[in-house]
Automatic annotation (TrEMBL):
Family designation: Belongs to the RLP family.
PANTHER family attached to this UniProt entry: LEUCINE-RICH REPEAT-CONTAINING N-TERMINAL PLANT-TYPE DOMAIN-CONTAINING PROTEIN, OS10G0469600 PROTEIN
SMART domains: LRR_TYP
Name of the protein described by the UniProt record: Uncharacterized protein
Pfam families: LRR_1, LRR_8
Length: 301
């Protein structure tokens, strides 16, 4: 990447995306005080994002996705009060999610997916994302620990994707606070416990993927109330019991997304084991007792 580009001090928009640029993001980028949009995506850039980027007070968009950038995401991003959209996906960023992001009140979109981020998801950062209008994507990193209850503060986001991490514990019922949510993906983690019944309050929800976790218990019957729902994947968990008979569930497409839950049952036409009729176990036991008694009686005779 040419270093002398930082001499263009009146530049407001820099779009060098989808070229074959190599090298590093120059430290001299701090001189571009009027820069509002920075798009370096789809190149072969290496190294880290310089801390000096925090001096670009007019910056509203950063897109450095699909490069080979590494190192920590600079905490200095928290100085960018005008920052609305940040795309860092498909790189090799490591370390933790920077706490400084909680000082970016105008964020509308955040995508840190497909990196090597570690540590817990900071609750205070989640709480600061109340103005997200589009999506939060933290998928396919190495994040661990619980999903913070502050996720409920993301009340305007259309989509949240935190799949492909190492999150554990229960899915907090307060996720129902994300009232505008249309797409929720928490698959490929280590969540345990029940599917929260509160999800049924997300009336705009169109798709939900909770597959490949360790969720247990029954599928909440209240999920049939989600009128906008057209995709649900609960495969490869430890779910048990009968599938709901109304809503999206009783069709072959959905039941194919319930595989890997040997404790689930339903009609044979949905390729699920038949549900044991209530009381059939007692009836079987009674039959065995009667047959045993009859055998003893016959022996005595």
């Amino acid at each position: 990447m040419p270093q002398d580009i930082t001499n263009l001090t009146n530049l407001a928009y820099m779009d060098l995306s989808h070229n074959l640029l190599r090298g590093y993001i120059p430290y001299g980028i701090k001189r571009l005080h009027k820069l509002e949009r920075l798009d370096l995506s789809g190149n072969r850039l290496e190294g880290s994002i310089p801390n000096e980027i925090g001096q670009l007070q007019s910056l509203g968009l950063i897109n450095v996705s699909h490069n080979n950038l590494s190192g920590s995401i600079p905490d200095s991003l928290g100085r960018l009060q005008q920052l609305r959209r940040i795309f860092l996906h498909h790189n090799r960023f490591s370390g933790e999610i920077p706490a400084g992001l909680r000082r970016c009140p105008n964020l509308e979109l955040l995508d840190f997916s497909q990196n090597e981020l570690r540590g817990n998801i900071p609750g205070d950062v989640m709480a600061s994302l109340q103005n997200i209008q589009f999506y939060v994507n933290l998928s396919w990193n190495f994040l661990h620990g619980p999903l913070p209850g502050e996720i409920s503060k993301i009340i305007s986001a259309q989509a949240i994707d935190i799949s492909g991490n190492e999150l554990e514990g229960a899915i907090p019922g307060v996720v129902a606070g994300c009232l505008a949510l249309e797409h929720l993906n928490l698959s490929h983690n280590a969540f345990t416990g029940l599917i929260p019944d509160a999800i049924s309050k997300l009336q705009n929800l169109e798709s939900v993927d909770l597959s490949s976790n360790f969720l247990s218990g029954t599928i909440p019957m209240s999920l049939k109330q989600l009128k906008a729902l057209h995709y649900i994947n609960l495969a490869f968990n430890n779910l048990t019991g009968v599938i709901p008979e109304q809503g999206l569930f009783p069709n072959k497409t959905v039941t194919a997304l319930l595989v890997g839950n040997p404790g689930l049952c339903g009609p044979k036409k949905y390729l699920l084991p038949a549900c044991q009729k209530q009381g059939s176990g007692k009836h079987t036991l009674l039959t065995k007792v009667i047959m045993s008694a009859a055998g003893v009686f016959a022996f005595v005779l």
